[in-house]
Amino acid sequence: MIHRHSSSCGCGEPGLSRRQVLTGLAAGAGALALPAASRSDEVDPAPRRIDVHHHFFPPAWLQRTQPPPGPLPMQRDWSQARVLELMDKSGIATAICSLAPWGTSFVEPAEMTKLARVCNDYAAEMIRDHPGRFGLFAAMPLPDVEASLKEIAYALDTLHADGIGLMTSYGDKWPGDPLFQPVFEELNRRGAVVYFHPTTANCCGNLLPGVNPGLIEWPFDTARAITSLLYSDSLVRYPNIRFIFSHAGGALPALSGRIANFVARDEKAKTYAPQGALAELKKLHYDTANATAAPAMAALMALVPTSQIVFGSDYPYFSLAENVEGLGKITLGAADRQAINRGNTARLLPKYQS
Q1: Is 116 part of a structural domain of the chain?
Q2: pTM as predicted
Q3: Full residue range of the structural domain in which residue 198 is found
Q4: What is the pLDDT of residues 213-255, one digit of tens each?
């Protein structure tokens, strides 16, 4: 079951007032913006971080990435040896690998199943060759539901993957769509960890010409995905799934008060948010990848306790070092810092508890 955090946050109330939201965010931002000399910077000298947001590039995947999403140098220069070197320098014991943001979506539907299998097998070989250093959130050939159900069984039963990697949307469908219900039923039955990475939905690829969709659209697609799961009652219906969302939840923390207030006025909310929207959002887990700026972390930490925050890097699109350095600037006690670095992920994935 999902870890429940008890607090006196009032998460069962209908929603937060505008003043409460602003006061909470201001207090969080003020705490996180303390000068370096007054921070509590007690850092475990051997943090043994687990990076839950770490991209890998199987040769078969790279061979199919032209023209979209393009032969980015950071992808072409990727190697296992280089990754391990950088992990050692940044105190990262284990990288849970997942495909780059495009997953398998850029190939023809008939090829998605084969590509997902090849990539998952490649990751399994990395894990065997470097025990303890790599893990896997397995790629799925969605929106092909039947093929994905077979890949879930193969990934979890044969490859012993750490969890399943999904995208925040598939074309014009978000995860709460009835099409995906069999997938989530199976993942719930297995009590799986499900990691979501944002992508570009059909609606929103070129809304701001010349602006990379990763800048604005991906944080909002993360918020759409979570809202889709909320309103479809998936967060209530599938309580055994442990969800992880990228980039501190994208736009979700900033929108959480607004969502809570709308849900509180919805007569149907007793079905999909019986204790209020905030109670459901607090059950989810959020990674720190490219999200360690003080305002982003203030918003996230005003929404959820540190027990729901896990370390992520978004490597290689952002370096391991800058993510470690960014998190190091956030005011945290030693126990909370180590929980984010390793403990919270080890709780989700018990094989890393040693």
Answers
A1: yes
A2: 0.85
A3: 46-352
A4: 889 999 999 999 999 999 999 999 999 999 999 999 999 999 9
